[in-house]
Amino acid sequence: MTPSDHTPPPAPTEVGLRYLSLGHHLRKTVDDTMTAAGLSLARTKVLQVLELRGAVRQSILAQDLGQAPRSVTQSIEALEREGLIERTPDPDDGRSKLVRLTPKGTTALTAGTAAGEEALRKVFGPMEPAQLAALDRLLDTIQAGLPTPPRQP
């Protein structure tokens, strides 16, 4: 028996805090890579919802993103200034605006998504298939322990 066999397993809180720290670092790494390619992770999520849903009211977009309408308005205004989305009056309700992806937005989304995927390949690519499968099962276990699964566009 080696001395490491007597080491007690780490406490769930220790592992949880390490997981949160690592998750934050991974998210920042992916975001930095995507931003360097022209589109942050947060902005990519907005465009992904629009690509998936088509033209949608800003209130629906905010709901889909799990954000406050005011936060989405600021993002939409910035994306509109850059020509990545456009807002038009809602034909069913003149007080509301519909938000839709522009062709330039589609191009930016493709580039941003590719950059994010490349960052993830750099991190997870070196893992062996059995390691990836084990990690995937562990993530399922963690997700099952959460009160509600995270929403994804």
Low-confidence stretches: none
Number of strands: 3
Helical stretch tally? 6
Q: Summarize model confidence as the mean pLDDT.
A: 90
Supply the helix-strand structural class. mainly alpha
- Major beta-sheet overview: 3 strands, antiparallel
Q: What is the chains' assembly state?
A: single chain
Compute the separation of the termini in Å.
50 Å
The largest sheet has its strands arranged as: 1-3-2
Instruction: Please write the string of helix (H) and strand (E) elements.
Output: HHEHHEEHH
Radius of gyration: 20 Å
Query: What gross morphology would you assign?
Result: elongated
- How much helicity do the residues have? 55-70%
Strand proportion:
5-15%
Question: Overview of this structure, please?
Answer:
With 153 residues, the chain is mainly α. Helices cover 63% and strands 11% of the residues. It has 6 helices and 3 strands, in the order ααβααββαα. Strands 1-3-2 form a 3-stranded antiparallel beta sheet. The termini are far apart.
